[in-house]
């Protein structure tokens, strides 16, 4: 026969168990929240950055900018997105606060901006400048992120296009599309320490997570050059689709994803063999590409620059296991109008704005409350 004290003890234990389950689910929900993708667009009347929730592949919000939103980079903390004005008439960089999804600063870099990269510490932003009447196209502006001001510049090469940091932040790799080289720059001395000949008309560039390789898109020869950073020499050239336009390396370094704007597809390169292992059809005229921190999804900005149908301006979402498009993000009410760039932030962690915390699908806080309620009901039977 169960005594009154035993019944009371069982109810107390049940409540403790339910609360413990609830707290675990809340913590897991916060720690495992999905990141956001930021897609740049030249817009209709003005540029914009579209914020996509990668957990649901739905549009979260639209951030307007006063110009053509072109290349973008996000800081390691995921708190700031830096966007170039690619209109060819402006020398500005837009700084977006991801907590409020608003532009909180505009930085004049002294020349028409092209590429942008944030150092691993998040303390500096490096911006390549296009050749123009106000600039010779050979320089990189350095922005102090604490003040949002240009503090220095580096003279690099001939018609520099884009840049990428080594994972340790000690080197910068810059593409020079006029002389078909990449420049290797020492961040401390701001001096070029090596020049590597690659393919025809190099544009975009990415480094492997371990820093041992640099991948360079050669848009003139439809290839990707693989550079060994220990010897600063090309060790492989991989043929991809027509008009390679952007490149991203998976977080584990096993695969490299290349958008091909003339072929309307994505080439997947096996990093160990330097061979294309898959070709994935996407939308029209794909440009930007980025990968989620867990490596499970690839986001591709389809600019559809030759299409008159605004619905073709969208984002393809690729499952990296099946190498197939599993979702297409359209903005419905809003028009992306030539989306070109995409960056993805880190997974949302505790301490970030609560509006950015997304529960594990079907569970999280609501799931915890349901569990607690059901346990209580079962104990009453």
Task: Give an overview of the whole structure.
- With 381 residues, this protein is mainly beta.
- The chain folds into two domains: 1-33 and 359-381; 35-349, Methylamine Dehydrogenase, Chain H, CATH 2.130.10.
- The chain has helices at residues 4-31, 364-380; strands at residues 36-41, 47-53, 58-65, 69-74, 80-85, 92-97, 102-108, 112-118, 124-130, 139-144, 149-155, 160-165, 171-176, 181-186, 191-197, 202-207, 213-218, 223-228, 233-239, 244-249, 255-260, 265-270, 275-281, 286-291, 297-302, 314-319, 324-329, 339-344.
- The strands form seven sheets. It has a four-stranded antiparallel sheet with strand order 3-2-1-28, with no helix packed on it.
- A hairpin with a 4-residue loop joins β17 and β18.
- α1 (4-31) packs antiparallel against α2 (364-380).
- The two termini are 16 Å apart.
């Amino acid at each position: 026969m169960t005594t009154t004290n035993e019944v009371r003890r069982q109810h107390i234990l049940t409540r403790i168990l339910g609360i413990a389950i609830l707290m675990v689910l809340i913590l897991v929900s916060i720690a495992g929240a999905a990141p956001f993708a930021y897609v740049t667009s030249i817009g209709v009347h003005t540029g914009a950055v579209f914020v996509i929730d990668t957990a649901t592949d739905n549009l979260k919000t639209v951030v307007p900018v006063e110009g053509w939103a072109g290349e973008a980079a996000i800081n390691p903390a995921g708190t700031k997105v830096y966007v170039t004005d690619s209109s060819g008439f402006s020398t500005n960089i837009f700084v977006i606060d991801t907590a409020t999804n608003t532009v909180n600063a505009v930085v004049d870099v002294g020349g028409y901006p092209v590429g942008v990269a944030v150092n691993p510490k998040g303390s500096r932003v490096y911006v390549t400048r296009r050749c123009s009447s106000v600039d010779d196209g050979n320089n990189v502006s350095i922005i102090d992120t604490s003040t949002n001001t240009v503090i220095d510049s580096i003279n690099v090469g001939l018609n520099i296009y884009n840049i990428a940091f080594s994972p340790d932040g000690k080197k910068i790799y810059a593409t020079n599309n006029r002389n078909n080289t990449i420049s290797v720059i020492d961040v401390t001395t701001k001096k070029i320490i090596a020049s590597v000949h690659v393919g025809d008309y190099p544009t975009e560039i990415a480094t492997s997570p371990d820093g041992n390789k640099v991948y360079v898109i050669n848009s003139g020869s439809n290839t990707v050059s693989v550079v060994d950073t220990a010897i600063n020499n090309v060790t492989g050239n991989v043929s991809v689709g027509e008009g390679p336009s952007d490149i991203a390396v998976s977080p584990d370094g096993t695969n490299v994803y290349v958008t091909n704007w003339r072929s309307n597809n994505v080439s997947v390169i096996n990093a160990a063999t330097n061979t294309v292992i898959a070709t994935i059809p996407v939308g029209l005229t794909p440009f930007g590409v980025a990968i989620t921190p867990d490596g499970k999804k690839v986001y591709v900005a389809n600019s559809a620059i030759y299409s008159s149908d605004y619905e073709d301006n969208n984002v393809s979402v690729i499952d990296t296991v099946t190498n197939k498009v599993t979702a297409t993000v359209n903005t419905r009410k809003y028009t992306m109008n030539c989306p070109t760039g995409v960056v993805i932030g880190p997974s949302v962690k505790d301490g970030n704005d609560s509006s950015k915390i997304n529960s594990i699908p079907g569970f999280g806080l609501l799931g915890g409350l349901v569990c607690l309620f059901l346990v209580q009901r079962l104990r009453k039977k």
